[in-house]
Each structure stands twice: as structure tokens, then as C-alpha cells.
Amino acid sequence: MSAFPNHYHARLVAEKDSKACTLCFKPTTTVLISQNKVDFFYVCPLHLKDEHFSSPIHPDEYKELETKKGELGRKIEESRKRVERLKPYTWNFLSSMLGSKKAEGTDQDKDKDKDKDTEKDKGKESYESAKQDLKGLEGELNEINSGISNYKFKDYTLNKDIYRMRTQNYVQSKVRAKKQQEMHKPGFFPSTPQHKVDSADQ
After folding, report:
1. Percent of all residues in the chain with a pLDDT value above 90, rounded to a whole number
2. Are 175 and 183 within 8 A, CB to CB?
3. Residue 135 and residue 129: Cα distance in Å, rounded?
4. Which 8-state DSSP code applies to residue 58?
5. Distance (Å, rounded) from C-alpha 85 to C-alpha 81?
6. Nearest Cα to Cα of residue 134 among 68, 66, 69, 78
7. Domain ranges of the chain
8. DSSP one-letter string for 117-140
9. Looking at beta carbons, which pairs linking 122-131 to residues 24 or more positions away fall under 8 Å?
10. Beta strand 8-12 pairing with 54-56
11. Low-confidence ranges of the chain (pLDDT < 50)
12. Other C-beta atoms lying within 10 Å of the C-beta of residue 34
């Protein structure tokens, strides 16, 4: 079992506490700390966007944005189809077809024409309304996309090779620390003889 899980939290420290990035050695104020706080190291924010180094852990808030994006995408597709159906050329085409077939107007014909004009106006209003609805949905989608692309992740998992290196470094540091402690214990080094050593000639 590993000494710490592959789950790191990104934290910012004060500028005066910045240290060299573990990868590029440039000063950075970003620290990755393992979930159980056993391991930590400094890293530049740019490296966190490199999929070969780490992957962000998506919180519920981010997942909700992705869900909303999918839902809006479907609504926009339906709205575009509605706008296409209600385009004015459809009404113009129908009016010209009907107009070419009618005889010169009686009062009854004129009343019918008024009804058709009213219907055509309603159609234009529906088209403009549909366009506004589509524009509103597209605006919402732009906001969602912006929120997704600019989302500030706080938790990450390391690339498996990077994680293995961190765990190995941790184990080696524990071994070194234990050895240092043992070296300071009485009896670790052989003591010098307290009695007189007889010479080989005697």
C-alpha cells in the first residue's frame, strides 16, 4: 500500500515563500500537497495543464457545467431547426403561390387577403422571436464554455510515472532518515578498545 494516495491539492503560498519548481527550477508559489499531507512539492501552474504531468480531478461544480453545456447544445440544435422552419422566404413563397392562383378581388377575397397578411405578420413575429431565443441560448453557451475553459481546478492526480517517482522518493527519504537516527545511537559505530593491545611480537 502506498504511503499516500494519488490525489493532490493545489495551494498558493506567499511570494516570500516561493521556491524552485520541481520540474523547471523556476520560482513558483504553487504547492501540490498529497491528500493526507505526507508528500508535497512546488510546481509551476503551467505544468498542471500538461496531461503528461497531471490530470485535474473534476469536482461536481465542473461536472454540472459540462452537463449544462450538453443540454444547451441540444436546445440550440432544436432552436436552429425552428428558426430555419420559420424563415420569411417560406411565407413569401406561400404568398406568391396563393396570389398567382386567385382572381381579381371581390370584397370577400380582400377579407381573405387580410387574414393571410395577418397570418404572414404572425409568422414573421414568430421568426424574430425564434431568432431571439436562439441568440439567448448561444449567449448562455458562450458563458458556459468560458466557465469551463477558465475553470480553476484545485485537485489533481499525477501521471503514473511521476507518482511512482514521488512514492519512491518518499520511501528513500524515510530510509535515509532512519539511518541517520541509527547513526546517532550509542553502539552504532564500533568503540575503540579500552584495554592495552598486545603487540604481535610478544
Report:
1. 60
2. no
3. 10
4. -
5. 6
6. 78
7. 8-57+153-178, 60-149
8. HHHHHHHHHHHHHHHHHHHHHHHH
9. 123/86, 123/88, 123/90, 123/91, 124/88, 124/91, 126/86, 127/83, 127/86, 127/87, 127/88, 130/79, 130/82, 130/83, 130/86, 131/83
10. unpaired
11. 103, 202
12. 22
- For 198, left (φ over 0), alpha (ψ -120 to 50), or beta? beta
What are 88's three cell numbers?
A: 420569411
* Run of H or E residues at 176: helix 160-183
Q: CA 138: distance to chain centroid?
A: 20
* Spatial CA neighbour of 89 closest among 56, 118, 59, 127: 127
Residues whose CB falls within 8 Å of the CB of residue 49, separated by 6 or more in sequence, listed in order = none
Distance between start and end Cα atoms, the chain: 60
pTM: 0.66
Query: Are 180 and 16 contacting, i.e. CB atoms less than 8 angstroms apart?
Result: no
Q: How many CA atoms lie within 13 A of 34 on its CB side?
A: 15
| Chain center to CA of 11 | 17
CA distance 85 to 65: 30
The whole-angstrom separation of Cα 42 and Cα 38 is 14
Pairing state of beta strands 27-28 and 30-34?
unpaired
Beta strands in the chain (DSSP E): 8-12, 19-20, 27-28, 30-34, 40-42, 54-56, 155-158
Single-letter amino acid code for the residue at 14: A
pLDDT of 188: 56
